[in-house]
Every structure is written in structure tokens, then in C-alpha cells.
Design brief:
Blueprint (H helix, E strand, L loop, with lengths): L9 H18 L3 H13 L3 H22 L4 H12 L3 H10 L8 H4 L15 H11 L7 H15 L6 H11 L2 H9 L1 H6 L17 E7 L4 E2 L5 E2 L2 E7 L5 E7 L4 H14 L5 E4 L8 H4 L18 H4 L3 E4 L10 H11 L27 E2 H17 L13 H9 L9 H4 L4 E7 L7 E3 L2 E4 L10 E6 L8 E4 L5 E8 L7 H25 L4 H7 L32 H15 L10 H16 L6 H10 L3 H16 L2
Parallel strand pairs: 1-6, 2-8, 6-7
Antiparallel strand pairs: 1-4, 2-3, 4-5, 9-12, 10-11, 11-14, 12-13, 13-14
Helix pairs in contact: 3-4, 4-5, 7-8, 22-24
């Protein structure tokens, strides 16, 4: 290592300086790197400063053009300065800045290097921290109110404060936008600063993925039981096409509505490969998603039943609630809020989407449930058939057309009849009729010949509560399937044709039963009687056993007569409880006033009055009763009573 000191010879000092200069040149960035840095700095400048640099470049180009045309340099600089209304020396300075520079880099070298005053107005650290803590809050107070509070504190502490604009400018410069948004607007707005993920659906096909969610309608609906409330719909939608495949409406978002809506999808379209849902109570129910390892809802037990989705091989994907990116069905629900909830058939029943957005005719009427269901079904069909959809899969077509094209090419699994019973509602402990095995459920009767063997027994039935006229599935209590029992329709009282048909079927039933009985019993009772051997009784003499000794009855001792003292004591007790109680007379307002007058007269006469009476009189004379009684007494004196 070469070291030098001030006492080193001149030749050594010169060599050392030469090495230092060479080393410093090696550490400097190359010219291309400096050019890139200059241009990057130029791009970050505001437009007004860029315009100034462009005007200077145009001025220098004009000077060069005039010199090439034969004019003197001094004349050219002066003429350009006059046109720009600036001094000639300024134009010379601009030319000096670009001397020796590349022609295509003149623009970045002509940028004004002055960046204004960077001095910070006087403000104590404590005042700055107080303003930040007050302003950067989720309540989002106005800057003016925060500044007023800061000035009140500053007067007590004798602070010299900068202006409000200066403080806001310092916050904008010194605190990142992410921190400001998080402190004043919360995490949801902070997430909006990050670009959302755009998910493509072109690689999917119909029935490869469905999403499901619940939607509370903004309409008053009158239910058959007379209750008026806002209904809730559980809907299932195809992710690829956007088509709504199934939905059920109920009073709440519950597992039965989800189960029946899923059953409609499987019945009409097949079994989806995957289902996207949040872990709400209705969707994370063990009857639907039991057995899914990541079902973070309720306590997971080893003996939990396997849910319908896992039984049918549907892959469950849990999503973030209220997330339109992961569950696009929520975007469609926003369309329903306008296209369906505000339908003219629901005029007067719309509730508004928030308490602050109630219409003037709020609560004017309620829509009957059957009308509501008809309109919802019609408008959802229109929603599916509407053309001009701009999604990447529809490309101008409707949801129906997009789904149909893909569905005809897709391989969709279909459910067997036994699998279809999985999503029906179960009712345990239904007792079959003791006469014929008939089952009564919600006012409807169901029967099949196989139920005759289960008369009077408790059974389990599975049914669709919104389609009670369809056959229901009957099981034993140990979940063994018995039969599909059809609904028995009621006939009119004067319907002769229905009565004749009933008689014909009953006659066939009797004839078939007789034939079955004849086939089952092959012997007559007489033939059985002939085979029974006769029974002859043998006479056997019996000897008596050991006689039993009977214990005679001995009466108890007679009750002794009570003494005279005991009788007197009992009579006294009976008299005390039977004699009427003597109650003290009730003191009236007039009695209390007369007592007060008597005490006052005694005081006026100079008589001795007890402290107890004086205290009572002092309290009583302050009461409203005393004043009213005194007015009555004065009135009686005035009228001569």
C-alpha cells in the first residue's frame, strides 16, 4: 500500500496524486449510465419545467440557424434574447451549459436547476406529532378542526406554528400515501391501492365450476303464514358462462335452501366439478360440506356425517366474503337490486338498500309470496337470455348461449335416482297410519302398497318443502330405503268420475289381495283340524301340602283422653285464629288538619307542646294537603258553615 506524508519528496507526492485521480475515475459511472440518470430525472419533472427547457432548446437552435445564415454571433444572441424577453447573458449561459455535450442530450442539460426553497417552516416536534396523531385517524376529522385544536394547545405552550397548508404539504411529502390511506380510510381502501387480480375463465367450461351465495331482497313479502319480511335467496351460478342455474327463496339463508338449490342444479344440469362459496353457516353446514378438511366452521368431529358435496365428488373452494373477484355472483346480485328489486310489480314494497335510502312510500304494501316468486323467476330467465354481454367468454352473446355452446361439448356427470334423494329435506319420526300405512305430511297424504308392512311404525321421509305434490322418499329409522310414495290428491265431493275410479282401483286391490292370500295359504282349516291329535286327560290324585298358620288380629291401644290444661290451650289457639282482627281507624286528611290546628292553638295559648308534635307540624304545614285543607276551612268560615 502506497502511503505519503507532507514531508515526502515531490516526485512521490506527484505519483500518489496520479494514482488517486486514476482510482477516482475508475469509480465514476460511465457516460451511458449518467445519461440514463439524467433522462430519468427529466421524466420525473413537472411539465412546466419541461416546457422551460424546450423553449431554451428552441432558442439555441435559432441562434445556430442565424449564425449559419451569416449573422454575427453577438447579433444572433441579442435577437433571440429580445424575442424571449430575456437578457443576452442568459442565452449565453444556456449555450455554456450544453457546450461539449451530445446534441440529443441538450434538452436535459437545459433544465432549470433551481428547485425552490426547501426550508421548513418553524414547527416544534411535539406540535408536529400532535397534528399527525389528530389528523391521521379513521374518523377522518377535517384538517381545519385539527389545526384549531393544535392552535389551542400552542397558545398554552407558546408555540410558533406554521400555516395549515404547510402542515398538509409536509404530511403529503413526508408520509407515504399507503400510510395516509391506512390511517384515515382503513384496510379496505388500502387494498384498493394494490391492483386487483384479473382472473381469466377461458380455460374453463360449463359445469366445471359453480359459485353460490345468499342475497337478501330489498322488498317486503307477505308469506302464507301472514308474516311480512324481506326474503332471502340462495342462488347457484355457472362461473364460465355467468348463467344462473338454480335458486331457492326462504325467510333466511339456511342449509335447506342451499341443499334444495343444489338439488335443482344437479337435477337439471348435472353435478359440477367444483363449488366456490364462503364459509357462512348455511354453506359450511356439516350436512353439505361435512368431511372437507378445511371447513373452518363449527367443531370438526371424526364421526361427522359426510356432506352432500363430498359424497358427490364436488371440490369445495372457500372464498373471502363480499369479494367480487373470488365470487363473481356478488356482481350479478348488484344487477338484481335494480332490475328485479325495483320491478313495477313490487311498487310500494321496495325497502331501500339502507336505512338512509328509504323511499317516500316505504312500507306502503307487501307483495304476496307467489307473485314475488313468479316475477323473480321470470326476471332471472331474462337476465340469462339478455344478449350483448361483454365478458371474455360471452363476447356479445347471452349467458344462455354461452352456456349452451359449452354444455353440449362438456362431459358432465349425472346423478343416479338414489343420489337425488341426498338433497331432499329429511323429517324423522313420521308415524305411518295404523290402518293402511298412509303417511300424512303438511296436510298432504302419501301412500304406496309397500307401506302396508309398516303400519303404525315411525319412519323417515325425504321431501322438497316447496314441491309437496311430488312423491316423497320413505326410509326406515336406520336409513334403509323403502319406497317412493306418491301424493294422494283430494277429489271433489260431487266428482262422480273420481269416485268411480277410486272404486275400480279398490276392487282391483281386493281381488289381488284375495289371490295373494289364496297363494299364501294352501290348506283349509278343516285339514289343519284333522291333523291335530286329540288330548286325553289322566286322573291323578293330589295330596295337600303343609297347612299354613294364620296370625290373629290384635287391635292397637285406645287413644288417651286429653287433660283439661291441654284442652284449654288448644281452645285458646283456635280462638286466636278464628276471632276477627281489630283494625285501627284510618286517619283522614281532615283528621290530620284538625290535629295541626289543635297543635297551633296550643302554641298560641302558650301551652307546652312535645318535640314530636312540633316536628310533625313543621313537616305537615309544608305539604300541599295542609294548604288545601286550610283553603277549605277558610271557605266554610266565609260561607257561614
Amino acid at each position: 500500500m502506497n502511503t505519503t506524508t507532507p514531508s515526502s519528496p515531490p516526485w512521490a507526492m506527484a505519483a500518489w496524486l496520479k494514482e488517486q485521480v486514476k482510482a477516482s475515475k475508475m469509480e465514476e459511472p460511465d457516460k451511458e449510465t449518467r445519461r440514463e440518470e439524467l433522462w430519468e430525472g427529466y421524466e420525473r419533472l413537472p411539465e412546466r419545467r419541461k416546457e422551460v427547457a424546450k423553449k431554451r432548446l428552441a432558442a439555441l437552435l435559432s441562434v445556430e440557424a442565424m449564425i449559419k445564415a451569416g449573422h454575427e454571433a453577438d447579433f444572433a444572441y441579442g435577437r433571440v434574447a429580445e424575442e424571449l424577453k430575456t437578457s443576452k447573458s442568459s442565452v449565453y449561459k444556456w449555450r455554456a451549459k450544453v457546450r461539449g455535450k451530445r446534441r440529443d442530450d441538450w434538452l436535459v442539460h437545459l433544465v432549470d436547476g433551481r428547485i425552490g426553497s426547501m426550508g421548513r417552516a418553524e414547527c416544534s416536534d411535539e406540535a408536529w406529532e400532535i397534528f399527525k396523531a389528530d389528523y391521521l385517524r379513521l374518523e377522518r376529522p377535517s384538517a381545519e378542526s385539527c389545526y384549531r385544536r393544535l392552535k389551542r394547545i400552542g397558545r398554552e405552550k407558546d408555540w410558533k406554528l406554521p400555516s395549515l397548508k404547510t402542515l398538509l404539504r409536509n404530511i403529503a411529502r413526508g408520509i407515504p400515501i399507503e400510510a395516509r390511506v391506512l390511517c384515515r380510510e382503513g384496510e379496505e381502501e388500502l387494498d384498493n391501492l394494490y391492483p386487483a387480480q384479473r382472473r381469466s375463465k377461458l380455460h374453463l367450461a360449463a359445469m366445471m365450476a359453480n359459485d353460490v351465495d345468499g342475497h337478501r331482497w330489498d322488498d317486503w313479502v307477505r308469506w302464507p303464514d301472514g308474516e311480512t319480511m324481506r326474503p332471502c335467496m340462495v342462488a347457484i351460478r355457472d362461473v364460465f358462462s355467468g348463467k344462473f342455474l338454480g335458486w331457492r327463496v326462504d325467510k333466511t339463508e339456511n342449509r335447506e335452501a342451499f341443499r334444495l338449490a343444489f338439488g335443482d342444479v344437479v337435477e337439471n344440469w348435472g353435478i359440477p366439478e367444483a363449488m366456490y362459496m364462503d364459509n357462512g353457516r348455511a354453506f359450511a353446514s356439516k350436512w353439505m360440506t361435512g368431511g372437507v378438511a378445511n371447513r373452518y366452521r363449527y367443531k370438526i368431529k371424526e364421526d361427522d356425517p359426510v356432506g352432500i358435496l363430498k359424497t358427490l365428488g364436488v371440490e369445495v373452494h372457500w372464498t373471502t366474503p363480499y369479494s367480487g373477484q373470488s365470487k363473481p355472483i356478488e356482481r350479478a346480485f348488484r344487477d338484481f337490486c335494480d332490475n328485479i328489486a325495483k320491478h313495477p310489480a313490487f311498487a310500494g314494497a321496495w325497502t331501500g338498500n339502507s336505512p338512509e335510502n328509504k323511499p317516500e312510500n316505504y312500507g306502503e304494501r307487501a307483495v304476496d309470496l307467489d307473485v314475488f316468486l313468479d316475477v323473480v323467476a321470470s326476471e332471472i330467465r331474462e337476465h340469462n337470455a339478455r344478449s350483448g354481454r361483454r365478458t371474455e367468454t360471452c363476447n356479445g352473446r347471452s349467458f344462455d348461449e354461452t352456456f349452451a355452446e359449452s354444455y353440449t361439448k362438456a362431459q358432465v356427470r349425472r346423478a343416479s335416482p338414489s343420489q337425488r334423494r341426498l338433497w331432499l329435506m329429511a323429517a324423522e319420526g313420521v308415524t305411518a297410519s295404523r290402518k293402511n300405512g298412509e303417511i300424512t305430511l303438511m296436510g298432504n297424504r302419501y301412500w304406496d302398497a309397500a307401506l302396508r308392512g309398516y303400519r303404525g311404525e315411525k319412519l323417515t321421509v325425504r321431501f322438497d318443502p316447496q314441491a309437496l305434490k311430488k312423491p316423497l322418499s320413505v326410509y326406515r329409522l336406520d336409513n334403509v330405503f323403502i319406497v317412493e310414495a306418491a301424493c294422494i290428491e283430494d277429489a271433489g265431493f260431487d266428482d262422480v268420475e273420481a269416485a268411480q275410479e277410486h272404486n275400480r282401483t279398490r276392487a282391483k286391490f281386493r281381488k289381488a289381495s284375495k289371490e295373494m292370500a289364496k297363494a299364501a295359504v294352501t290348506m283349509t282349516p278343516q285339514e289343519v283340524a284333522a291333523l291335530v291329535p286329540s288330548f286325553e286327560r289322566s286322573e291323578v290324585r293330589l295330596t295337600p301340602g303343609i297347612p299354613q298358620i294364620v296370625t290373629p288380629f290384635i287391635p292397637s291401644k285406645p287413644i288417651q283422653e286429653r287433660s283439661a290444661e291441654e284442652k284449654a290451650r288448644l281452645d285458646a289457639v283456635a280462638k286466636r285464629y278464628t276471632e276477627p282482627k281489630v283494625t285501627a281507624p284510618v286517619e283522614t286528611a281532615a283528621d290530620r288538619y284538625r290535629r295541626a290546628v289543635t297543635i297551633e292553638e296550643s302554641i298560641d295559648a302558650g301551652e307546652v307542646v312535645s318535640d314530636h308534635d312540633l316536628d310533625w307540624l313543621d313537616l305537615y304545614t309544608q305539604s300541599a294537603e295542609y294548604r288545601s285543607q286550610k283553603r277549605i276551612a277558610n271557605y266554610k268560615v266565609a260561607v257561614g258553615q
